[in-house]
Write the structure tokens for this entry.
Amino acid sequence: MANTIIDRRKNPGGKSSDNRQKFIKRTKDEIRRSIHESLGDRSIEGSGKSQDIKIARKGISEPQFNHNPQSGSRDIVLPGNEDFVEGDQLEKPKGGGGQGGGEGEASNEGIGEDEFGFVLSNDEFVNILFEDLELPHMISKENKSVERFELTRSGYTNDGNPSQMNLEKSMVNSIGRKIALKTPKLKKIRKLEEELKTCKNKERKVEIEEEIRALRIRANAVSFVDPVDLRFNNFSKKPAPISQAVVFFIMDVSASMSSEHKDLAKRFFMLLNLFVSRKYKRVDCIFIRHHIQAKECTEEDFFNNKENGGTIVSSAFKLAKEIIDDRYSPNEWNLYVSQASDGDNWDNDNEDLLKILSKDILPITQYFSYIQVGQKRHGYYNSGNLLQEYVKLEGTHDNIICKHIEQHSDIYPVFREIFKAKGTTKK
Amino acid sequence: MSDKLIYTGTSWTFDKLYRMMDACEEIAVDDMGLDCFPNQIEVITTEQMLDAYSSVGMPLMYNHWSFGKSFIQNKKQYSAGEMGLAYELVINSNPCINYLMEENSMTTQSLVIAHAAFGHNHFFKNNYLFKQWTSPDAIVDYLLFAKRYIRDCEEKYGYDAVEETLDACHAIQYQSINKYKRPNKISAKEEIEQQRTRSEYLQSQVNDLWRTLPKSKKKDKKEEQTWPTEPEENLLYFLEKHSPVLSSWQRELCRIVRRIAQYFYPQYQTKVMNEGFASFTHHYIFNKLYDQGKVDDGSMLEFFKLHSAVLYQPPFSSPNYGGFNPYALGFAILKDIQRVCDKPDQEDKDWFPHLADTDWRITIKDIVANYRDESAILQFMGPKVMRDQGMFNLHDEVHYDDYIVTSIHDERGYKKIRKNLSASYETAAMIPDIQITNADITGSRDLTLLHESYKGKRLDKKTADQVLTHVQKLWGYKVKLYTMHEDTLLDVYECQQDKNNPNAKQITRHTQSL
């Protein structure tokens, strides 16, 4: 019997990853709901880690025909009798269920819990979080500054870098060439040599030796691999279309923004920041904070620094306009603006603000989103009236969207609504 | 003495494994006279074992979300320490594939080799159920074919459509087994060829069928005939051949699922005897190795510790009790038979006159070859086994408040206990017996299923309804299920065609596009 032992430990793992992805795909709605629920309480910053997920078992049951244990009569044979004798009666355990351990007919679900818990990796988590979201209206703009190429396979060439040699093609050529040149097969020579050993006839012996010699010469004359056989994988550079974009984060940090308001706004922006950095490789982010004065700052300052003061919203857009004129020509860049505030503005500024927005900002931006944070009260907004002003713009411009966020659990749904994939001119 | 030792200590090497294989083989073949497939031992990691667990123990399997689910579940339980992994996994194939875990000690590896590579291996090759129902030469090729075929279908017809069909097929896989009819053995190549001709034939037939459908069937109504004339026990077979709505690739999926279910059918009918015989084999081989001086005292102690852990039978009153341990029960029965053959006492001669003083090697191999759990327990479980295990029988009627102890391990009870224990290993006791009795193809196209109740057992309503929805999807029209117990109708389930269900429509649409 031929027994073999094989070491399989080095084999690539992850045999089940396909099945895992299928499972996640099937339960995506449930997972999304679960993520949504958990988003409220956890900090977005923490999303560099894997994520515990609980989903309802409903959608993932695998029904089979099963016997109902509460029906019919049955005889159970059990081991371990100590003092029972024939005719003894034993009270049934109350509460149906377990039946004293009964037959080993447990379902393959283990314990019949309603929830199925498992761990999502960070990648899986973020992918589901931002699935079918995009920066809307993105178009390929002329891009002279950055040349980008992609290497694509394009057939084979006769010469090239040894590391790119295609062994299969080369060997096929080698074999073909040898057949074409009628190269004697080694097998044939060996056969003759065998014959030579057993051959008694002297004449025949000489004949065979001669034949072997001739064959060897011919065999040696043809090289095993010839330079003409070699084939190399060929790659060619193709210019890749690029769509570059810049996203302006504009946040009100004035005194009217309570710490609660700031928290909501920051959470929203963190989500946006994560979304942009995960989904797009080539997107710039500009962070602007403002009170009566606007200031461009780093990502870290934007999320961490504290400042106070009055509010002049237009200052932020003036600064944005300057930055656009200076660095981001609308001809080359897709421009996105996202603003968050409590809606408070210095009354006299509103007119100015609307003018800047409708004249300077909205015509050149792909998409403008405004979120107002804070509690609604009796249908009126607790604090400022910026939202009411912006809503007017929604009528005249189709690239502005205004939403209201009252509490943590609003953030993700609102975010989804703002960046829902619209299947627009994305290239 | 010490040159004879195959190994000392706990760590294993490939060299030691090879020597152990040879030593075991010598005893298994020359002494016990076992007849095995060649072995292919594969050393794998924990992660790979988890992979194998979730693809029902097969080396390769088509992809489906449910395997992903069980992988996630197993992995979670394993990493939380709630579940240990098996030391080995063995596949009924030729060559016989044995997976060994890398973290096993040398003694564990040796036990596993004796247990699986020779015990299970002999059982697979010789037991009549395995011989009849499985083709170990073809299974790996067939799984490869199935995996590729399903992947191609996913590309052609979409993931969702394939998943939906597979879900439906999985729901009735245990009712899709031929219990009596024996399938022809064909190779994987013939299989692929057959599949092609089948689908070509179906393609050519379908259009003609639609065109030649008679306009009216009123005349035929007089003869109320049921069709199929004999009830069909293999649900997926029937749906594959006769469903009016499935397209040819879906029929092939039905076939794949039922063929794989059929492959596993012998496994759950021979759990006790298979594990029992493998345990018997490792026990015998290890004792021999010790007698030959090939393993040392320390290894032997470790062996006994492992052996008794695997073969532990908790009593019914223990919180760990989960039914009879198949290893322990099978081992006890076979060990007892060996004793009856070698040194029978009067009781044994009364119970097993035909076995007493025979050669145990021949007798046990005969049991292994020709019986399954139910019949082996009924024929060969002796009174000593029942006494040793303290077996007793409880009778349970649903409407009684108490269980009644009807028999214990005494003269009067032995035969009854043996009969009842044997009956609990009948397939009908474990898996509801459901057959297709009527398909009204000339009229309403209703499909009627019959559940023959086992001892008045009824179906679990919730899962039965869910499964029927799946059957309905495969059949396309109304499906009814009756539970009958000795001419009494216990339950009726029905599943209507759901007009608003987009899934139902989807299946129908595939047909029309043919």
Q: What stands out?
A: The radius of gyration of chain B is 26 Å. Residues 29 and 35 of chain B are 7 Å apart (CA to CA). Chain B touches chain A through 105 residues (CB under 8 Å). Residues 501-514 of chain B have pLDDT under 50 and may be disordered.
